[in-house]
Specification:
heterodimer; A: 289 residues; mainly alpha; 69% helix; B: 319 residues; two-stranded antiparallel sheet; 2 strands
Chain lengths: 289, 319
């Protein structure tokens, strides 16, 4: 210990602990409240803090999870969260390999072209008009194609690859292999930590995306995502079958909360590994760059 | 004496002069680059040409470049409407800049406080829970806030009314007078932990001997934070500030699609949302594109200004 214990130091430590406890409550309580609300008996939730569930009632969940529209949305969300990130890793990883080559023809130009996209954005309407021209509106592909090359991810993978000795590739060349083989057989497995980090990051991005459905796919009911359905319910333009059949026109708050929990839970699974990669610095490197 | 330029052939094993030879040699590399290049060409660079919409009378039936050229008509229209549009610029700039500064300052404080915790498991837990909201979508954030803050069914208002402190609930999500505060605090809630980790990694890069020699000279904890930790992480803060300055006129559409409503619009609506509303909503494509261009120009200007200020304040910090 560097410093002697002093009265001021102890007071500070106590104050610091209280502050951290407050912060913990501010961060955790909103989620806890929503979870407890969703599984409480609805008549017993009014005007309480709900630090624990008041009664137990899982009907919100059984109702939601038997709703065809919701299951459809869940399927679309899962599909885009798997197809999108793997497609992106496929396209971006190979490009990162090429750009990590020291003497690539036009390497500097290519690098500038990619970096510039981080600062140049066409904006909502020009992009919308082009997407319509490409025929991507009201299709599933609008979710995964525009993000198939992520420049942030590209920089991340390239930085990681540059720390791998060039001799790795040369060993493949010696055996008569080409760059395609060098990437998929040798470099890709070595880059597994950064590949996993990129994959997780993109999965979260796809899962959380909302406005793309609102902009491009409002006419295609079959392509609604979980986020979009939740948003619709929150702004009370209900679209769930269950709600049409039930007597009241609006969704009960318990159901909204249950839906929120269903949408948060998958993030909880990905989050611990995400945090690991972030704290270990794999993601941090490109943030600071 | 004439210098003979000598290149060690071993250093450049496959670096022949002729371009065509090099291209043929690297055909696999270029092929691997191709999908990504085509992708950014289609989805980043070609749409940029859509800025032409702002200078033409766009008709969907005639194609993107089929509209009649009208010059600066739409920019003049925006200029004339400026008194009515000023609130958009004000809302965007106030909410973005205050939440940027609040987030950076609170993240810096959080990082320092986390580092000063003697019992490390606590620091780990707090770090984990503060980082989490960053990965939550704006839809979920809105849903959670609605459950806590809405006028009738929100937990906060129900408890305040039940306790007799309020007669009727505060309309925190709908009343314009709470809009700025709501967004600024939410931004801080969502990203303080994320930014704190960036500062924590900057703190862990400070050489320990700086602290040791300060302790030898009789510095206490507060002094070593003030004179060692803080000056060491300020460059990181200024890099983050400059990096974000270019985006001060941009907002997350996800966020404002959820939080903007008919009643709080005067204080909640931002440029991004207005572009959405006039473009996708009212189909004024040319007009909305003109605002996008204006927004981009303002962003570049802001980045240059902040970069200059940061350069003046801290020569080493500017990028």
């Amino acid at each position: 210990m560097l410093y002697k214990r002093s009265v001021g130091g102890v007071i500070f430590d106590v104050f610091n602990m209280i502050l951290m406890a407050l912060l913990f409550i501010i961060m955790v309580y909103p989620f806890l409240y929503v979870l407890n609300y969703s599984i409480s008996v609805s008549s017993r939730t009014v005007g309480t803090l709900l630090l624990w569930p008041h009664g137990l009632d899982f009907r919100n969940y059984t109702k939601l999870l038997s709703d065809p529209a919701l299951l459809r949305a869940l399927f679309v969300s899962v599909a885009r969260s798997l197809i999108g990130p793997f497609l992106e890793l496929f396209v971006t990883g190979m490009a990162a390999y090429a750009l990590a080559t020291p003497n690539l023809v036009g390497g500097k130009i290519f690098r500038t072209i990619f970096i510039l996209t981080m600062y140049l954005s066409a904006g909502l309407i020009p992009t919308y008009v082009f997407m319509r021209m490409y025929g991507l509106i009201n299709t599933f592909w609008i979710y995964v194609l525009p993000s198939a090359c992520g420049v942030f991810e590209l920089i991340l993978i390239r930085t990681y690859m540059e720390s791998i000795p060039y001799a790795m590739r040369e060993a493949v060349y010696m055996d008569g292999g080409n760059d395609f083989q060098a990437y998929w057989n040798v470099l890709f497995p070595i880059c597994l930590p950064v590949n996993a980090a990129v994959l997780l990051f993109d999965i979260l991005g796809q899962w959380n995306a909302y406005s793309d459905t609102q902009i491009y796919n409002t006419m295609a009911k079959k392509l609604y995502t979980l986020q979009y359905v939740l948003a619709n319910i929150m702004t009370s333009q209900t679209s769930l079958e269950t709600l049409k059949n039930s007597s009241s026109a609006t969704t009960s708050q318990g159901m909204k909360m249950a839906m929120t929990v269903i949408t948060v839970v998958p993030i909880l699974f990905v989050y611990p590994s995400m945090q690991k990669y972030f704290v270990s610095g794999i993601m941090l490197g490109s943030v600071k760059e | 004496m004439k210098r003979v330029k000598k290149i060690d052939p071993a250093l450049q094993p496959d670096h022949p002069r002729k371009l065509s030879v090099r291209i043929r040699q690297q055909k696999w590399l270029l092929l691997m680059l191709l999908p990504a290049l085509v992708n950014i060409l289609l989805f980043n660079y070609l749409p940029l040409s859509g800025w032409y919409l702002a200078f033409s009378n766009y008709k969907p039936s005639k194609g993107i470049f089929g509209g009649k050229f009208v010059g600066l008509k739409y920019f003049k229209q925006i200029f004339h409407e400026m008194p009515d549009l000023a609130y958009l610029f004000e809302n965007t700039l106030v909410m973005n800049s205050v939440s940027l500064i609040l987030t950076l300052v609170s993240a810096m404080v959080l990082a320092i406080l986390l580092k000063e915790i003697r019992w490390k498991p606590v620091a780990k837990v707090v770090q984990s829970v503060t980082f989490f909201p960053y990965f939550i979508s704006w839809v979920i954030t809105y849903s959670i806030m609605w459950s806590l803050l809405s006028t009738k069914s929100g937990a906060l208002n129900q408890i305040l009314v039940k306790a007799g402190i309020l007669d009727t609930g505060l309309n925190l999500l709908g009343d314009p007078k709470y809009s700025w505060m709501l967004i600024i605090l939410l931004d801080a809630w969502k990203s303080v932990g994320y930014n704190a980790i960036i500062f924590l990694s900057a703190i862990s890069g400070i050489p320990l001997d700086q602290y040791e020699s300060a302790a030898l000279d009789g510095a206490n904890r507060f002094q070593s934070v003030w004179y060692i930790t803080l000056p060491n992480i300020l460059p990181t803060a200024s890099v983050l500030l400059v990096m974000n300055a270019g985006w001060l006129f941009n907002s997350s559409l996800d966020q404002y699609l959820m939080f903007t409503n008919a009643t709080n619009r005067p204080k909640m609506e931002v440029l991004e949302y207005y572009i959405y509303r006039s473009g996708i909503g009212k189909l004024n494509y040319s007009y909305a594109t003109a605002i996008t261009i204006l927004q981009a120009l303002l962003g570049i200007t802001m980045m240059l200004i902040v970069n200059q200020i940061a350069k003046k304040l801290n020569q080493a910090a500017a990028i």
